[in-house]
Each structure stands twice: as C-alpha cells, then as structure tokens.
Amino acid sequence: MNHFWIILIGALVGSSCSILGCFLVLRKMSMIGDAISHSVLPGIVIAFLISGSRESLVMMFGAAAIGLVTVFLIQMFQNSGVQADASIGVVFTALFAVGVVLISLYTRQVDLDLDCVLYGEIAYAPWDTLHIGGQSIGPKAVWGVGASFLLNILVIGLFYKQFKISTFDPALAASLGIPVVFFHYLLMSLVSISTVASFESVGAILVVGMIIVPAATAYLLTDKLSRMIIISIVLSIVSSLLGYYVAYLLDASIGGTMVAVTGVLFIVALFFSPKHGVLIKKWSRKKVLQQN
Amino acid sequence: MFQMIKKWTMIGLVLVVSLAGCSASDVSKEGKETGKIRVTTTIGMINDIVINVGGEHVETTGLMKSGVDPHLYKASQGDIKKLDAADMIFYNGLHLEGKMVDIFEKMAKKKPTIAVSKNIPEEKLHTTKDGSKSVDPHIWFNVKHWISATETVGEELSKFDPKHADDYKQNAEKYMEKLRQLDEYVTAQIATIPEQTRVLVTAHDAFGYFGEAYDIKVMGLQGISTASEYGSKDVSELRDYLVKNKIKAVFVESSVPKKAIEAVIEGAKEKGHEVNIGGELFSDAMGAEGTEEGTYIGMVRHNVDTIVSALK
C-alpha cells in the first residue's frame, strides 16, 4: 500500500506543478519554484521566533506567508520593468539572505533549517496520516497536494482563456479588457500555495523539478497550450511511476530518481521530438541540401 | 480540454494502480522466518544498544550509516521497507531526526515506536538560552543519559516480548555495567587535564552534555544544527580566546567539514599562537562498522583519549 501512496503523491505533485509549470515556462519564469524553495527561510525563522515552536503547521504558515510575499515582489519588480529572471534572482537571494542573518542573530542554538523543519520526505509521507474521529483517511500529503491540484485545475479551467491570452500577448489581453495584472498575481499565488504545500509533504527537489522539466519537455513536443498542459501532466505521472521503480531498484532517494527520470524524458524529447527534435532538424536539413 | 484531462487522468490512474500492485507483494518477507524481533533504529549509537540488549532474539538495522550527519540525512527507497517490516522502532527524539520525529510519533499508534530519550528527566536536558522550548538532542555525550536510554530499550523489549524478558533484563544490566565503567573512565581521564586548559573547542555545538557531565568547558563555532552558518565574529572571538588562554588543540568532527575550524587555527597562527588539530572526534555519527570506533563504547573512548592526549 505504501508503494501506491508514494506513486500517487508523486503523480499528484507532478500534475499540480506541471500545470502551473507550463505557464511559467512560457513566461520564462520557470525558476520560480527554486526561488520559493529558498526564499521561505525567513518565514520559518520569524514563525519560530513568534511562536517558539517547530510544529509543522506553524512552519508551513510562515513559509506560505513569505512564499506569497516572494511572488508578489517578483511580479511587482517585473511590472516595473525589471527582467523576469533578474527579478526572481534579486528577490529570492535577498530573502534567503535575510533568513540566514536572522538565524545567526537569534536562533543559533536551535536546529532550525529548511531541511529539518519544512521540507518533508516523500519516502515517509505514507505514514503521516490524517485522522478523522480516530479513523485513518490516508496520508496527509494526498489530501494536501490533492487539494492544491484541484484548486489549480479549477482556477486554470475557469479562466483558461484569460490565462492563455495574457501569457502569450499581454497587450492584446489588455486591449480585450482582461485584467492582465490581476491574472499574473493570481497565477503567482497558485504557484506559491502549490509549492509550499508540496514542500511540506515531499521535499524541495521533487517540486522544483516537476515545475520545470515536464513543462519544458512538453514545450518541445507541441505548439498548442492545451496539449502542452496535458502532455506535461502525463509526463510527470510517468516519471513518478518510473522514478519510483528506479528508486526501488537502486535503493536511492525517491524524489531524486523521479526528477532524474523527467530529465531523461526531456533528453529523449530533445532528440526525437517530431517537430523540434535535434535529429529531425538535422535530417530535414540534409534533405533540403540534397534537393538543392 | 476537460474531456481530455479526464481521459488522461484515468489512464494515468490505471497505470499507477497496476504498477503499485505488482511491486507491493515482494516486500516484508525477509526475516519473518527466523522468528526474531525485527527492530529498526535511526542513529548507530541506538543500534548499538539494541544489539547489546536484544542479543540473539533481535535482528536490528539502522537507517543512518556511519559518518552520516543525522541533521542532514536523506531517505532512500529502502528505508520504507526497513520501517514497514520492523516490529519495533527506536529513535533518539528531541528533534534530532528533524521532521522524521513527527512521523515516528504518528507511527507509535500502529507499532511500538519509542524515543530512547523519553525517560531522561526534563530538568537534566539542556534547553537553549533564548527561552524557547528547544532542547539539545545530543544526549549520548553524557554516558549517564545513555544508561537511561539502555534501560528504556530493555524495558520496551521486555514489554514487547515477555517470553525473553529475563534475557533482555540481564543483557541490559550487563551493558549498563559496562557503561558505568565507561562513565568512570571518562570522568577520571578528563580530570587529568590541568584545569585552565580543560577546554574543548569543536566545530559545532554537540558536546554540551559532555562538558557538563565531565567538567570540561566546551566551545563550538557553529550552532547546534550543522546547517547553520557561523559568523566572522564567531571565528575571531574563538581565535582570541584560544590565544589568550593558550589552548593547545582544537578538534574536528567526523561528520562536519573541517574548513570552519581550520579558519580559526590560521587566525591564531597569525597572532603568534600555535594551535594543533587535536584529532578527529565522533559527534553525530560513529566510526565504520566492524571497527572499535563503530561501537558506542569505542567511540566515547576514542573521543576521550583523543581529547586527553591533545590537551594534557
């Protein structure tokens, strides 16, 4: 049963992250998952200083608050003309640095770092069960990540057209009367909520990887957004299945192997994609040359 | 678009279920035939207690291998099997294992999952100076605390397997006697260091209990967590202290990088005071399996002998 739960959690994290990842890749903001994984440090320190406890719930609350601050600052800087990658870089390094300074000032005597108070471990997630009236209703991670997956599907599904137009052509969207800025912030809030919820149950590497790699792979395989989203979800599910099996064979870190498999799939797509693949391009160039 | 999502999710779910089904059957078969109690522990020091107390009735595996820093431990797929197949689990507790402690507390509902630190009276535990409820988890540095941990393991094994309760009691008694001798040895050895140079300088603050129990001043460069960073003021303060009190040696730890402490040595040298690296101490992890330092007693003896010969 544990195997099933872990694969299911991996697939849910993957699906939830890759839906958002598609939009982030198209906006050249795919490093935002990595950014949030670092910038939440001051959040947990402040939450600890206020509450004096390292309870998961308190830590997650602090992290979620700073996660939102992170994406809002990034979006704000970007709106005022800073390049996307630069604004991500500036915000997360600055916030991470604040966290390091806070730890060295106030909490040197406490074992307080992201790895041990915020990041969960997918291998142990099946035992972290939720109970209602003394009855176990499955791992907490399934419910938490599942809820954020549904939220993402719901919001993106409802405003699919708006998200799509404001991603590809913000100027056109604005002229059509779509509140572009609002949808940017909405997308960013979804990113923040999904990543922090997933960090807490499965750890950082899986989330950061699942945001970028399946979406980037799907980008190579299709030119249509709706297809890109579906392909990236399928890729992330396949990766969590295969990744778990590889982890089982090698006795390795589960999150690590799942992301490694997404990387392998990416390379396969890079070479063999029917439209943009390296080999296909080479081959068609040869054909053109021969014809001349 | 929703239609397509639905279709693909269904296909995905079917895949998930089928693969999970075929791999689930091959786990948790080993060890059952031998009739031994299967115990899983976290750090090597606890594993050592279980080996000594459980004797022939118990088969024990540790999650963290030698040389691994428990603060930064990364789980592997095999851990699931180890935890799943275990009849009992022993861990340190007091947040040493980080977020895993939450999991262990949940698992306690299903099978005996015991923190070996649970019977150490609260007033004997070190809390941090900043007034929060955080406790220093490195209890094994005070051998008396480890005697209490041994007692806990003995009691819990007897409770789980009453048939062999007498054996566990005897084994625990034997091991505790060895630990008592070890405790006396440490006290006597440390006392041979002249009082003004009786200072233990290491990279991270793991030796708090050691210092208190055996009357040696302890100074660390890093905080309790090996992940926290040290400030430049820490380096210069520690350097000045070494120079002023003419401390002969500082120590490196097996599971913490040497770089930090080397900066202090360089600094002292510039001020004209020669400090040596007194040797490598085992702090959060024991030595390699099969060696003398791969046991708790061997590890403590190694630490004490290293400290005494460098500072005397």
From TrEMBL, chain A:
Main location: membrane
GO biological process: response to zinc ion; transmembrane transport
Species assigned in the record: Neobacillus novalis
Source superkingdom: Bacteria
Cited Pfam families: ABC-3
Compartments, record wording: Cell membrane
Cell membrane keyword on record: yes
Protein name in the entry: Metal ABC transporter permease
Record's keyword terms, sorted: Cell membrane, Membrane, Transmembrane, Transmembrane helix, Transport
Membrane topology, record value: Multi-pass membrane protein
Transmembrane annotation, as ranges: 6-26, 31-50, 56-74, 86-106, 141-160, 172-196, 202-221, 228-247, 253-272
Family according to the record: Belongs to the ABC-3 integral membrane protein family.
CC annotations in GO: ATP-binding cassette (ABC) transporter complex
InterPro entries named among the record's database cross-references: ABC_BtuC-like, ABC_TroCD
